[in-house]
Amino acid sequence: MIYCFLAVDAEIVSIDSFSKSPPKRGLVVGITFIKDSGDKASPFLNIYCDYEPGSEYNLDSIAQSCLNLELQFTPFQLYHAEVDVGDQPETVFLLSGNDPCIHLYKENKGLHQFEEQPVQNLFPELQELPSNVLWLDVCNIPGSGRRLTAFGCQSGYVRVAQVEQARREILQSWSIQQDGPISKVLVFRLPSSESDPAQNGNGGDQGYSVLVTSTIELSVVYRNVLTHGLADQLTLPASDQHDSVLCALVTDVDFDGAPEILLGTYGQELLCYKYWSSGATGASAAEAEGLSLPAGEFQLLWKRSFPSPLLSMEYADLTCDGLCELAVVCLKGLHVLQHSLKQTAQCLLERLRQEAARRASHSRVSQQVRDANADGEAAEV
């Protein structure tokens, strides 16, 4: 697909896309790039969106409907987030740059195009940044009207904020200074059950944690930030042994209901970590006990080598067979990792056996309750 207003020699910096929040319809694609004009390099943001009825999801039509914006700063991450504007949800673009600022682009309904608006109108936590933001993540907390916003900077500065969306009020804010540039920040929910996640797929009660990866340090997880802020830190062992971490993903790849952490490195390694809420030993367990923090640790589950540095990852159902694949973008190409069908089938059969046993047990208990009620009614007569 050829996107208009995108030169063949343009250097693409970042890409993002989203479907408009209901009741609106349509696909929106954003591309930041730098065009070399010979005497200088000019940065641009292209936003593609078709407003013609019936063409909102037509990729060919969208690619030819472009808003071309010349930027006055070097763009970094292009991200989208959903916010409540009045009583309607609205999805906006957030673009970090070297100014250093976060720039907000919101759709103007009357003009049928996106335009830049002051970021403090919707995201007060993204003001007064101390350094260039390299990665940003926003997580809306379901049913609460609140959100968690986390970002990491080129200077190593990390900030996490809890915000009341309706009033645009910062309820809590935590920050920490690390030693090197932050390459990725992700907000996710981590199981806090005292049993192994492999034995307890629901993971017990879940709290929001923040993964922070660094270019020169160990990657860390700040656990249950709403309760402990950034005080409860768990490291990912050996995550600094394969050069810089360039990308990360949090998803369940072993079908146990608990998320694993995947790290992609410049050293051409894919690392998979699993969290164990029990079994922490030595200094980590003693430190947790002294701070009244729950025990737990991350362990390296497996790793895999690639022929070039890993740049990005996505876990999605690419073959439309109901089973997700892991797409890994490397410096020299795209790799797609698939689950073993034999192991997946065995896992499915075991889950079906467990579900059948659970239903049979529930049926027996229900029958016993009905029999007891019937005996009680007969005795009264």
UniProtKB/TrEMBL annotation:
Region (Disordered): 360-381
InterPro entries the UniProt entry points to: Kptn
GO biological process: actin filament organization; cellular response to amino acid starvation; negative regulation of TORC1 signaling
Gene Ontology MF: a single term: actin filament binding
GO cellular component terms attached to this protein's record: actin cytoskeleton; KICSTOR complex; lamellipodium
PANTHER family registered for this protein in UniProt: KICSTOR COMPLEX PROTEIN KAPTIN
Name by which UniProt lists this protein: Uncharacterized protein
Organism of origin: Gopherus agassizii
